[in-house]
Amino acid sequence: MISPDLIAGIFAFLLSLMIFSYLVGDNPLFRVAVHIFVGVSAGYVAAVAWWQALWPDLIFPLVSGPALQRALLAVPLVLSGLLLMKAWPALSRLGTPSMAILVGIGSAVAIGGAVTGTLFPQIGATINAFDLHKAASPFEVLINGGFILAGVATTLVYFHFSAGPAAGGSVKRFSLIEIIAFVGGIFLAITLGVLFAGVYSAALTALIERLHFFGTFFGLGN
Amino acid sequence: MRYVALVLAILTGLIVLVGYFVPALAPVQDMLLTWSIILAGTATLVGVFNLILVHGTKVTKREKGSIYSALLLFCLFAAFIFGLALGPDHPDIRLLVDVVIVPVEATLMALLAVTLLYASIRLLRRRANVMSVVFILTAVLMLFASATLPFGEIGPLNDFLRPWFQHVLALGGARGILIGVALGTLTTGLRVLFGADRPYGGK
């Protein structure tokens, strides 16, 4: 009798092969695999949303919680009902208040996260790069800290797009901003190059893992 | 409706934001965050329902590729019903994830090795400027430094250049990008809280 593990292995092997077929161009096998993937992922995500958000935070407390909690949960219950109206174009306007609450709370959380999770720590780390007690040579600290500070400042200037009128009716950034932005572009290129190398290494690792999976499936390795 | 939505967005957003600094508002902030989790869960269901509508329409109208849409809907309903009945942590649902989601994601990641190589070659052919050259040179340098070479490691590359590129030059650029993103998030968030931007609907 064929074991469930073998069937699972054959299915995973076939799906992997169908995805790999994209190397010869878009084809029906690739589309079948992608549609299976999207369908299963969407169904799984919906089940996870039910079991990890709606059931523990809404349905279960509504059924078995104290009276005050149940009364308070009537609000998100109604808002969720209104949000579901977004699925029908004719009734989608009813979901706008729910979306507004979601966006308002999301914005506040994003602001808090950006300030306390990114701005303060990153600015602090840039200042700490000049901490002379961190390395044996103060010269090394100053040089490295200077490069990091230059990278931060010029990268930020690179994304500064204010411009003034130039000859011929066009618009152009100021010359000094252009020069600093060019240096920022070099820092950006180096950063993206390092990130690219990291992503490429991860992709190569995945490729090797898949080839190893194929080899193991045919009994070529262990 | 437009003004109700505006007032709700500003009010809930401000309560959550002020809740970070005023401990007395923390219980209300917690309650609103729980509500937002519930609404996010419902929004996920709305998104999945929209996917069903789009592909269901394709199937009923027998449009081109409707057989793929039918397959997608079958897989979606099967995964949802089993996931709902058994729960996402059940061994059979974990098996479904291990058999479909993990292999496809891993293979798509593996395909990235080929497509990224192709894209980087095309980059130099289509846009051969200073930034492109620096980008490619840095990427090649990092890959050489991290790879196991047949003739052994190149000392200065591994001991000096790679750490310096990663921990100084790239760190500066990455920090600039992160601070820029945080400033953008801050500005966009404040525009929503002040009612200047209304992505939830209304002008």
- What's the number of domains of chain B? 3
| Total DSSP E strands of chain B | 0
Q: Percentage of helical residues of chain B? A: over 70%
Q: Report the portion of residues of chain A in β strands.
A: under 5%
Q: What is the CA-CA span between the terminal residues of chain A?
A: 23 Å
Mean pLDDT of chain B: 90
Contiguous helical run count of chain A: 6
Strand content of chain B: under 5%
Radius of gyration of chain A: 27 Å
Largest interface chains and counts: A-B, 114 and 124 residues
Give me the side-by-side strand order of the main sheet of chain A. Answer: 1-2
How would you classify the helix and strand content of chain B by structural class? mainly alpha
Derived structural class of chain A: mainly alpha
The overall pLDDT average of chain A reads: 90
Q: Would you report the number of β strands of chain A?
A: 2
The major sheet of chain B is characterized as: none
Report the radius of gyration of chain B as a whole number of Å.
25 Å
Number of helices of chain B: 6
Helix share of residues of chain A?
over 70%
Structure write-up:
- The complex is a heterodimer of chains A (222) and B (203).
- With 222 residues, chain A is mainly alpha-helical.
- Chain A is 76% helix and 2% strand.
- Chain A has helices at residues 4-20, 28-64, 67-84, 96-128, 138-158, 175-217; strands at residues 164-165, 171-172.
- Chain A has a two-stranded antiparallel ribbon with strand order 1-2.
- In chain A, a hairpin with a 5-residue loop joins strand 1 (164-165) and strand 2 (171-172).
- The longest helix of chain A has 43 residues, at 175-217.
- The mean pLDDT of chain A is 90.
- Chain B is mainly α.
- Chain B folds into 3 domains: 1-86, no CATH class; 88-126; 128-192 and 195-199, no CATH class.
- Chain B contains 6 helices and no strands.
- At the A-B interface, helix 1, helix 2, helix 3, helix 4 and helix 5 of A face helix 1, helix 2, helix 3, helix 4 and helix 5 of B.
